[in-house]
Amino acid sequence: MKEELFVSGRNIPHIDPFLHLWTWEIPLYLFLGGLSAGILFFAGYFYVMHKERDMTVTIKWAPMLVPFLLVIGLGALFLDLHHKLYFWRLYTIIRLESPMSWGAWVLMAITPLSIIWAATYLKEVFPKWKWPFAWLDSFEAFAIKQRKAMAWALMLLSVILGVYTGILLSAFNARPLWNTSILGPLFLVSGFSTGLAAIVWMSKSKYERKVLTRIDLIFIFVELFFIIHMIMGLQAGSEAAIEASQLFLGGQFTVTFWVFVVLLGLLFPATLEILELRGYHVPGWLPSFLILLGGLIFRFVMMDAGQLTRYLY
Amino acid sequence: MRYAMAVDTKKCVGCGDCVVACQTENNVPHGYCRDWIVENVAGTYPKLEIELRSERCNHCENSPCVRCCPTGASHIVDGGIVLVTHDECIGCGACIESCPYDARYPHPEGYVDKCTFCVHRVSDGENPACVDVCPTSCLHFGDLDDPNSDVSKILKNREWKVLAPEAGTKPQLYFLT
To answer: Is residue A4 situated within a structural domain?
Structure first.
């Protein structure tokens, strides 16, 4: 028997008996950040590949959503802060050791860039659009000329943003479930997969849907591989890591994780996508919806489960 | 200079005086604490062993909370004491997530708070409040770089352990066993 009690009656809100400081705000932001990263990466990629005509939703339409997604995500991050009026302190210093610091700076770069990218296509998407000031017209003309440079910057920054959503958690040595270096790549591919799902949902072009669905299938299988890899790594780790992985292997998150994330969020939509590529009629929104929902649940599960895990002493 | 504390688990009776002294000295809000007492019971009846530990921030040498702080509010001062500058802290909670000892908490005013080793007393040459008040004198505080300090001497003569050494944090709260 081993029993540990706080005899001095410690019951601090959000900390005891189990750490539950980060609730819905951070996982929602991680989801929106990954989704935005996915959309922006493929907008940049297909622009650089000269697919502006064939992939209109990927390059022009879907990025219109991103500024809104990022602003909602940033809003969630702001709500999570306990000392809200001091949030500007984030931008008085660059601390490379702290993932949250460079994540904040990457957001500072990618959010305006996504707004400018979307703005350069506003007139194409909404032909009646008029800028209220003349200088905005000249800025637009300038930005349109810089699209190629912006596309490269979007690709680079979106990979950093996607990886960062994972590294934010994996940098915490104190939470064994998160403390695995596969978490960065895992959140990156998961974010890209949700981004692709969102574009496919919006697109009506057969060609575009086919190209993106094929890429999405690759990402889904890489993600499944990373998930298995993560659990194997934890199982082969220290006692704290083994105990952490038990949350998914018989513990309290087993059903949520395997049914809602792996089965309904990855395997089932992947099957639907394969059927669609083979010519079967599948409701166009269904695989995308499931992938997006699975991605959201995945981040909530990782957040809640990770905070339950700790060193044992 | 390297401040450290040694807790004599053989002498601690778990009275909680250190907890109350800290709450009074540092104006800790109601319902919160910067130090606390853990009772660890191990073994099979009738061979049970009880260990009482007065715990607090470990003022780690390799402190994950300082590393992950995005604003630099968490920092280390002379003597290795880990502190939080309240008006630089945004209350993001990264340091709370990063602490293997769950030694930090969000203060109701928003910033993150924790044990300071009573830096305001220590810098005047006094002991932290918890050490001074302990009725069994089971808390020992001092400078590890000074071989004649209370804490150096007792760590030399007694067996001790630290919590979760595998976390690599190099904690400076020693438990005499």
So the answer is: no
Q: Is residue A249 part of a domain?
A: yes
Residues 48..87 of B with a Cβ closer than 8 Å to A: which?
48, 52, 64, 67-73, 87
Domain carrying residue A205: 25-308
The CATH code belonging to domain B3-176 is 3.30.70.20
A50 domain residue, yes or no: yes
Complex-level ipTM beyond the 0.85 threshold:
yes
Domain count, chain A: 1
pLDDT averaged per 10 residues, chain B (length 177): 96 95 96 94 90 96 96 96 96 96 95 97 96 96 95 96 94 96
Say if CB B137 and CB B5 are below 8 A apart. Answer: no
- Residues B52/B14, Cβ–Cβ less than 8 Å: yes
The pTM of the full predicted model, rounded to 2 decimals, is: 0.94
Predicted confidence (pLDDT) per residue in B44-69, tens digit: 989 999 999 999 999 999 999 999 99
Task: Check if B93 contacts A (Cβ < 8 Å).
Answer: yes
- Cα gap B156→B142, rounded to integer Å: 13
With H, G, I as helix, E, B as strand and everything else as coil, classify residue B103.
coil
Contacts of A24 (CB under 8 A, 6+ apart): A76, A300
Q: What is the mean pLDDT of residues A81-87?
A: 94
* CB atoms A86 and B88 under 8 Å: yes
Measured between CB atoms, which of A1, A83, A174 is closest to B90?
A83
pLDDT of residue A1: 67
Tokens of A245: 């992985």
Give the residue extent of every domain in chain B.
3-176
A10 domain residue, yes or no: no
Question: Where does residue A141 rank: exposed (0-12), middle (13-18), buried (19+ CB within 10 A)?
Answer: exposed
Count Cβ atoms below 10 Å from residue B26 Cβ, excluding itself.
Answer: 18
Burial class for A90, CB neighbours closer than 10 Å (0-12, 13-18, 19+): buried
Among B33, B68, B73, the residue with its CB nearest the CB of A10 is B33
Residue A258 near residue A248, CB atoms below 8 Å: yes
Contact A81 B92 (CB under 8 A): yes
